Amino acid sequence: MTTLSLPATLLEELSRHLESAYPDEGAGFLFGEIEGQLRRVRAILPLANAREAAARHNRFLITPQDYAWAEQRAAQAALDVLGVFHSHPDSPNIPSEFDRQWALPYFAYLITTVKQGIADQHRVWMLREDRSAFDEIPLQIDAETIPPQSANPLFKPFPP
User: Is position 40 within any domain?
Assistant: First the structure.
């Protein structure tokens, strides 16, 4: 089973970025290494939300230029782009249909609920190869693993 591993210090940095974007969605890239089924985050790249101002409260946009820049930064650090993190302000951290339409099957998607400006809960998802739905995967923070918490029947976790 694929697991995303993230140091607590990077989770704090990621949370601060998403809190600073509130009440809009914030986003960025996850950089790291792939070790079998473990995706180990070594760095993050916070981004400005490029979506038009009127839609930023419930949408984020990563431009092609952002993606190219992220690929360059990852290559310079000898890391892979593992995925994307973003926030759902005052909403559940379950991928939306919009998220599914724009997602890539290979990436991990760390979605954080930001309640009243405070990062509250983090969950990680991967899009199925056929793009039909997301599956929740475990999040490991330092040595502690947070198992999938899927309650929505459309988003089933990988079998244990």
Answer: yes
In whole numbers, what is the pLDDT of the chain averaged over residues?
Answer: 89
pLDDT, tens digit (0-9, with 9 covering 90-100), for 54-69: 877 888 888 999 999 9
Q: What residues does 31 pair with on adjacent strands?
A: 43, 81
pLDDT of residue 3: 96
Q: Residue 79: which domain range?
A: 3-146
Residue 151 lies in a domain: no
- How many structural domains comprise the chain? 1
